[in-house]
Each structure stands twice: as structure tokens, then as C-alpha cells.
Amino acid sequence: MSLKKTRPLKIYLGDLTYTTVTLATEAFPLNVGYIASYCKKLFGNDVEITLFKYIDEIDKAVNENPPDILGLSNYCWSHNVSYEIFKMCKKTNPNVVTVWGGPNFPIDFPSQKKFMERYKEVDIYVPTEGETGFSNVVKKVLKSNSVDEVKQQITQSPIDGCISRNEQGQIQCSISTLRISSLDEIPSPYLNGMMDKFFDGKLTPMLQTNRGCPFHCTFCTDGRDEVNKVNSFDIKRVQSEIQYIAEHIPKNTHSLHISDLNFGMYPRDIEICESLAKIQEKFGYPKYIKCTTGKNQKDKIIKAIKKLNKSLRVTMSVQSLDPDVLNNIRRDNISVDHMLALYPAIKEADLQTTSEVILGLPGETYSNHIQTLRDLIRAKMDEIVVHTCMLLDGSEMNLPEERKKWGMKTKFRALQRDFAELSSGKKVIEYEEVVVGSNTMTFEEYINLRILAFIIFVTNQGIVFDAIQKLLREQDIDVFELYYGMLTNKKNSSGKTQKVIEQFKQATIDELWDSPQKLLENFQKDSEYKKLLDGEAGTNVIYHYKAVVISECMDDWTEHVIKAAHMIIKNSNNYNDELENQFEFIANYCRGLSHNVLGQDRLDTNPEYEFEYDIPSWLSPKTNLKLNNFKLDAKLKISFQLDDEQFKMVQDNIDIYGHSRIGKSKTLKMLFSDGGQKLWRRPLVTSDQTTYLCWND
């Protein structure tokens, strides 16, 4: 008699997130939801499947009621905790079949062999799409006549789409690319109710409309040739899922994740955006849409995003603008010139942009990284985010020969928010390996470029310092010089700002460890683990200190920006009394927008200034006229205020992520999806008894 005749096969599937200090990874566990839906379709009542997102819940479940099969996702932010859960489950049920899956798995066989030898509590690894590989494991287990025969079933021969062990413990593979070309073979985990329990007011729904990526970037786990083809879900199904999510979403949840790797790049994405726009109009949701927009076809992307009421930013995955560096990472099939040339069209559509850059790529130097940043700022990108190059299992860049070729010098750092103490007493900390030097860049250069990235990240805040940037450009001054001046003239800043920059520098150095063993050993100490709990360690340093600036010393930072810009203006060839006068009004406008947006008394502190120029009209993207064309006949009094909607938006996110620096960092990350327009103060003109908004967003 087979095992399935005795009782349903008990399966636990988890895509885990930490919640120790705040919610670390907020997306619904859609990936394991797909696997569960596919297995229920194939095996029906022969399987009983439970989905998990929270670590404490699965910790309790594997100890009190262990499953027959435990399948967990393997990402860099859940790697160590997943393995600890495997070990715990093996102790309570030695016969459990443990299955790991996800992209963070080596692509060369020697490294795969080492991986499986290292993680002995993992019976099977599914390195490509999980539905087929995992269902093949379930099929094998269901053939067993008893629990005692399960091990024999999974070891006697290779399992299609998996890496496993034979009876002698040797690695056996059958990992031909098992991808489902017709994705609608996978039942929707939304429409069948499997996602319902995750509408809990904490997590953010995730939507997937296609799978695959046509690009080959060596730093990415999705750059492999075997996942090159893009397969899509039926658009009517996608529309039904959007409707379902909107009908079930709690009132305090404002965001939606789209997990497509190049959203907006395909013709049908316009239709999807139209469906989302209708949902927004009907339900007021989503206010923010998080996704990675396409790397080519930006004209199509603009057309699609224009339909979404500014809830989605155009993401420019630039990484570098140096041709040699782009060639080194197999990124020469993405037109950088086309990307940058589209900025005027993006602004004309009144959309926000984010440009992502990677520091420490193969062949990168201090000077060509600086040039990349300079060119992006010249192109007027709204937000520039610089990531440190991370070496991932499953990426071509992490191959031993690639490391050696580029002389990569690496360190290890704890991942932000990703740590917990399990019921076993074990403290689990996630970490990443990052490139901090190479045969073309020194460690000192790396640190200086990190500080510059921080200054740009905080200061290039869209509407807050738009006026200063525009005035500099009117005088033919390279705006990059403002940020570089803030880096090289830190001593001219106020005590608070100078202190934050120095703290950021030290934290950037202190977060690095020579080995993962030393990192993990350190944080097992109660005193060091407390630093993680208190936000003194284990944070995303650049986001953390951005939150410190905005929540604790934004007024001082604004004065630092004003002082640096004023110095450049005074040294320019066009400096005169009129320009000095204009600059003072511009400075006050920036002071008003940025003042106290996160303080408890933020609704009660509304700064007012008088202006001789119509600055809001001058800032309109529809005009190219210089500021002196906007001189007023009489002074205009503007009050800078936060409205009730803004207050609620901030408060809802703080309620989810917490009042700590870490929580506020997460809140700001969510609010900046639109450039922070819903965060910064609004200029309100008061004329006699009439009050009106200076701009409409």
C-alpha cells in the first residue's frame, strides 16, 4: 500500500521573512504559492499543504507537528534561517524530506558538489523553476509504501529538475531546464484562496505577469542562458488577480509588488497598466507600485507607466555608463545612450526616475565610476541609488575564474533586519559577500565613493532641492559639483551634518568582516546581538543614515546643501546682486519643503516665507524660462504644510514598520517610490482669505 493511501502527505512550504525588529521582506510568498497550487492540481487530496511566511510560525510548526516534506526558498536574505529550520525539522522527524529551491545556487558542478556537501541536512535542491522539480519530488515520495521507504525512493535514481544524493551519499543530477512554457498550467494561488491568510495588514501583495529575462548580466542570478526565454501568464488571469487583490486588501496597505524582471517593456504591459489604473480609480489602491522596469524599450515603458497616476517610477538599471565595464558584465546589448536620451520624454510625462548603479563591478575605476554619476546627474535623474557589488551563488560573476580574473577583494556584512533567535536558542544572522576592491579600485577609493553615494542619495531628493539644481543649471554650472563639493568640504557643514557623515563612514567600515565565520561568531555574543536589536549594527547603512538625516537633522542637512550651492554660485562667472537675491529665495523654498516631515509635531510646525519670484511656476517642467521671468509685482507669502492624507500615509507605514530608526528607514523606502512627493511639505499660498496649492500632483 502506498503512503498516500494511509493519509495525505503533509507538506510545508515557506518563503521566510524576519520580523525581529521590523518586517524585513514584506512581499507575499507568491513563489511557494505557485508550487502549492501546482501540486494541489496534480495530487489533489493526496497532499495537505501549509504555506509559511513568518519564521516564528514555521519554527513552532516543525517542532510540534513536523511535515513529511519541508520545502523552503533559498535567497540571500533567508539562506541561514532556512537551513536552521531544516536542521530543527530533521531532529523532530528524521524521515522528513528536505527540499531547498531558489536562484542562490552555484552554476558550476564543482561548486554545486561543495554546496551539497556543506549542507548535509538538505536532501534535494531544485535550482530552476520550482513547480516541476518539486512536484517530481512529491511524486517520488507518494510512491513509497511507508515512511521508511521514502529515503529509498528519493535516492535510488536522479529526480528530474533536481540535484539529490544516491544511497551512498554521492551527488546525482538531473537538472535539465524544466520550465513551464504555458504558465497558466499553474493555478492562481490568489483565485484559489491560498494567499488569503497573507492579507494581514503587514505583507504586500505580489503580482507576477511573466517569467524570464532576455538579458545576460553576469552579476544577476537571472542572467543565465537557461532562463533567457520570457513566458507569460494569460492577461485575463492577471486582470482577475488584480481585481481579487484590490477586493481583499486591508485599508492600511498601500503598495503592490510586480515581480516581473522587465515590467513595461512588452506591448501587453500597457493593457495591464490600464487594468491597474481602473482598479486605482475604483478602490484607491495601489498608491505605490514597486517593480523593476525594462532595460530597453523605454518609450513603451513611459507609455505604460503614464497610465498609473504617478504610482510607479521608471527604473533605469544603468549599473555603469563605462563601455568597458558594461562589456565585462555582458551588458552591451542594453543601449545606455537610448536610456539617457529618454529623460526629456520621461519628464514631459511628469514621471519620476530611479537610476541604479553598482559600485565595484569588474574593471571599474574611481574615475569612471565618478563619470557615471556625473553623467546621470547631468541627465537630471530624480534618484540615483548606488549598490555595492554583491557576489551571489547562481551568478556568472561568482565563478572562481571570474573572481581571479578581476582580482576581486571581498568582505562580508550582515544583511539589514535579517536576524532572529530561534526556539532552539540559536541566533541566526544573514550575510552577504560584497566587492570592496579589485585590481582596478582600492579599498580607500571604495569608501570615498560610498560616502559620495550617500550624499547624492540624501540630497538628490526630487522636489526638495529641485530649485537649487535648476538655478545652478541656469548658470551653466555642473550640478555634480554640488555633491562633490559636499564630499570634499565636509568641514564647512554644521556639527550635526558633519557628525552624520562621519558616522556613515565609520559604519561603512565597521560593517565589513573578513569571513562569514568571524561575523557569525561575533553576533552570537549577547552584547553584540543586542547591537543588531538596537539598530547599531546589521542595517542597510545608506538607508539607515538617510532616515537619520530626514527624521533627526534634515534642517541642518538642508543648510549644508544651501551653503555648498552658495559657494559655487559666488565663485561663478555670472555672480551678481540679482543672482544673490534669487538664491536667497530659492534657499527659503528648499527650507520650507524639507522642514520637519517626520516629527511628532509635524502638523503644527508650518514655516512661512515671502517670495519675490513665482518659484512653483518656474519649476514646472512645462517651462524653459529663467527665474528672472517670474519676478512678481508684489511679494507672495507661502506656507509649507503637510495635509491629513500625507500624515496618514506616513503614520500607516510607521505603524507597520515601527518608530525605530530601522522602522523609519523602511517607511522612507516605501514613501520614496514617487520621489517623496507624498512625504515633503506642500507650498500653500495665502492671499487675503484665499488659500491654494502651488502645484497639483
How would you portray this structure in words?
The protein has a five-stranded parallel sheet, with helices on both faces. The chain is α/β, with parallel strands linked by helices and 697 residues long. The chain is 41% helix and 17% strand. It folds into three domains: 3-174, Rossmann fold; 183-459, Alpha-Beta Horseshoe (pyruvate-formate lyase- activating enzyme); 582-693, no CATH class. Helix 3 links the parallel strand 3 and strand 4. The longest helix has 18 residues, at 577-594. It has 26 helices and 21 strands. Helix 1 (30-43) crosses helix 5, helix 16 runs antiparallel to helix 23 (577-594) and helix 25 packs across helix 26 (661-671). The protein is globular, with a radius of gyration of 27 Å.
Compute the CA-based radius of gyration.
27 Å
CATH architecture of the largest domain: Alpha-Beta Horseshoe
Count of DSSP strands: 21
Q: Biggest sheet, in brief?
A: 5 strands, parallel
Instruction: Measure the end-to-end span.
Output: 67 Å
Strand content: 15-25%
Q: Provide a count of the helices.
A: 26
Give the averaged pLDDT, no decimals. 88
Enumerate the strands of the largest sheet in spatial order, edge to edge or round the barrel.
2-1-3-4-5
Approximate shape = globular
**Which CATH class of the largest domain is shown?**
Alpha Beta
Number of domain modules: 3
Which regions have little confidence, pLDDT < 50, spanning 5+ residues?
none
CATH homologous superfamily identity of the largest domain: tm_1862 like domain
For this structure, the CATH topology of the largest domain is pyruvate-formate lyase- activating enzyme
- Class of secondary structure makeup: alpha/beta
Question: What helical percentage do the residues reach?
Answer: 40-55%
